[in-house]
Amino acid sequence: MFKGKVVLNQKESESIYLLGIEASKSILKSFQPGQFLKIKINERMDPLIPRPFTIHALKENTVYILYQVVGKGTKALSKIKKGEIIEFLGPLGKPFPRLKNYLICAGGIGIAGFGFLLQKSMKKRKFYPPEKIFYGARTRTELVRLSFLKNFNIPIEVATDDGSKGYKGFITDIVEMELKKNPKPVLACGPKKMLKKIAEIGEKYRIKTYLVMETFLACGIGFCKGCVVPLKKGNYAHLCIDGPTFLAEEIEFEFLS
Amino acid sequence: MLASGTWGLGENLNKFLTPKEIRENIGALVSKGISINPKEGNPPPRLFETPSGLINSIGLENPGIKEFKKTYLPKLKSYKVPIIVNLHGEKIEDFIELAEELKEEKIAGLELNISCPNVKKGGLAFSSDPKTVLELVKEMRKIWGNFLAVKLSPMGPVYEIAKICEKAEADAIVVANTYPALAVLNIKPLKILQGGLSGPAIKPLTLRLVYEISKKIKIPVIGCGGIISGKDALEYLLCGAKAFQIGTANLIDPRSALKIIKELKDLKNGLCS
């Protein structure tokens, strides 16, 4: 595991935080968008297993993680103070697929990994920028990091369940409207329900859709075989080494329910 | 030793440990459990974290003996540390067949997983039936001259099984496998996960087993259960273990073994000075 110094752990909404970890540039330079880190929350044994977090952004010597407090691991993480040293393992998993002329669809904290993709895509070398970003959340205050996302000059459409900002309803509704007019690949990350809808839309319009999946994982490096994703072929993929991004049509549909 | 099922089959081990670090810190690599035919393993979820513990229900996912020999074993041998192959079967004949397959291979030994169900006894675990274990180890001993260890389940007639392994001339026993456990995943509708509990949560339980068993038998006891620090390892050694395996710690950090060995050396040096 590598050691890093916490330089930021700031509240972005009621339950979403932005964590900045300063680490050696030689470690950070190998990071790719779509990959994740496993962060050891503390020296205690509970939580025992370091938690996986997608890389949100990278700036100079600092890697940023955008996370939502959902359980004891993330709750403990939210209490970490500036200046503390934490350990992490990574980068783990495969980077995002290299897409051109595509859309991003993010639901809730699913926006996290796309910040780094946007950063990297500006160089248009390994990664290309999306044509549009669709970002949905339950309510206005949960749409975080909008000013950061706007820096990249890519159109952003937002939706909220309660209509407090943007389209009132599911983000997938407006993604579908867009695809009806102009079909193109979609890279999506968010709740399972949203991913399922994206997979359905992809099938309906015969569009390649890529889903960033989530599951509890332990080792993160292919040791334990614990993080399986059932495939249509009948076998299993291991999220930590084969994912976390999968082509929707390869995933066993019931797993998304 | 690195415990079975906690470092895969070595595919990614060298991404985290250098060959030198492996050679200098790891006494043996105990492979993931191998069966005759490939196994896909259980559907998800396969894991659940508990306070200081981890429940797993992997379902013995493995490529099967033929693929293991062809694809994985050559790489494992290249690490130049003793390789112990963990075997599991549905009946005694399966273990024999697996051992026959490995006879010509240059491996350090075998570890028998007797926590798996015996189809000839209605799916009851081998470990719950001393007679079957006696027959299994005796039969294996007939065809396997090298190091032979039996990995005990912590449940059932543990002490009797330990004595039987000694009687049947096993070279060592590993104490112990995971503890049968259950997690509630969802309250309404009730959804559960049954699997084996490992990690620091089980250390006091297995430490007691090691302590009691090592008083009862003369063959070496290899301690395995919740070791994540040098102090844990030292405790096992002080309580009768002649060697120890590191399991769940590998899932926390693939370099745990190095940390544990260093801490253990420092502790031993401290005790001697």
Describe the protein.
With 257 residues, chain A is α/β, with parallel strands linked by helices. Chain A has two domains: 2-92, Translation factors (Elongation Factor Tu (Ef-tu), domain 3, Beta Barrel); 103-212, Nucleotide-binding domain of ferredoxin-NADP reductase (FNR) module (Rossmann fold), CATH 3.40.50. Chain A contains seven helices and 16 strands. In chain A, the strands form three sheets. A seven-stranded antiparallel beta sheet of chain A has the order 4-3-7-1-2-6-5. A seven-stranded mixed beta sheet of chain A has the order 11-10-9-8-12-13-16, with helices on one face. A two-stranded antiparallel sheet of chain A has the order 14-15. By secondary structure, chain B is an alpha/beta fold. Chain B has a single domain (13-42, 60-181, 198-272), classed as Aldolase class I (TIM Barrel). Chain B is 38% helix and 21% strand. Chain B is built from ten helices and 13 strands. Chain B has helices at residues 13-16, 19-25, 65-78, 92-102, 130-143, 158-167, 203-216, 230-238, 248-252, 256-272, and strands at 29-30, 47-50, 53-56, 83-87, 109-113, 117-118, 124-125, 147-152, 172-175, 179-186, 191-198, 221-224, 243-245. In chain B, the strands form three sheets. In chain B, strands 1-4-5-8-9-12-13 form a seven-stranded parallel beta sheet. In chain B, helix 8 (230-238) links the parallel strand 12 (221-224) and strand 13 (243-245). In chain B, helix 4 (92-102) packs parallel to helix 5 (130-143). The longest helix of chain B is centred in the C-terminal third of the chain and has 17 residues, at 256-272.
Strand content of chain B: 15-25%
Number of domains of chain B: 1
Major β-sheet strand ordering of chain B: 1-4-5-8-9-12-13
| Helix run count of chain B | 10
Over all CA atoms, what is the radius of gyration of chain A? Answer: 18 Å
Oligomer: heterodimer
According to CATH, the fold-level topology of the largest domain in chain A is Rossmann fold
Largest interface: A-B, 29 and 35 residues
The CATH superfamily of chain B is known as Aldolase class I
Main sheet of chain A, how many strands, which sense, barrel?
A: 7 strands, antiparallel
Question: What's the CATH architecture of chain B?
Answer: Alpha-Beta Barrel
Report the CATH C-level class of the largest domain in chain A: Alpha Beta
What structural class do the secondary elements of chain B suggest? alpha/beta
Order of helices and strands of chain A: EEHEEEEHEEHEHEEHEHEEEHE
The geometry of chain A reads as globular
CATH topology of chain B: TIM Barrel
